Amino acid sequence: MLVAFEADAGGPSLASGLVAAEQLGIVRGTVFRYWRENLAVGERLASWVRFPV
């Protein structure tokens, strides 16, 4: 599978991306890349985010 995309990242231009993969799973929702409590329905933390010490 090959996926090319452009997305609004809040900057002066679009952010471009290219993904090449043998398999692809799509999960809809918001993913936070930092610790956050009280997640709403459809929100989750990125897999590498850990509870702050």
> What are the low-pLDDT stretches, counting only 5+ consecutive residues below 50?
none
**Tally the helices: what do you get?**
0
Give helix % range. under 10%
Structural class category: mainly beta
Strand content: 25-35%
Q: Identify the strand order in the major beta sheet.
A: 1-2
Q: What string, H for helix and E for strand, traces the elements in order?
A: EEEE
The main sheet comes to: 2 strands, antiparallel
Q: List how many beta strands DSSP finds.
A: 4
Spatial shape? extended
Rg over alpha carbons: 14 Å
Distance linking N and C termini: 39 Å
Describe the structure.
This protein has a two-stranded antiparallel ribbon with strand order 1-2. The protein has a two-stranded parallel ribbon with strand order 3-4. It has no helices and 4 strands. The model has no long low-confidence stretch (mean pLDDT 92). The chain is 0% helix and 34% strand. The chain is mainly β.
What is the compact description of this entry?
The protein has 53 residues and is mostly beta strands. It has strands spanning 2-7, 15-20, 30-32, 43-45.
Secondary-structure blueprint:
Elements lengths: L1 E6 L7 E6 L9 E3 L10 E3 L8
Parallel strand pairs: 3-4
Antiparallel strand pairs: 1-2
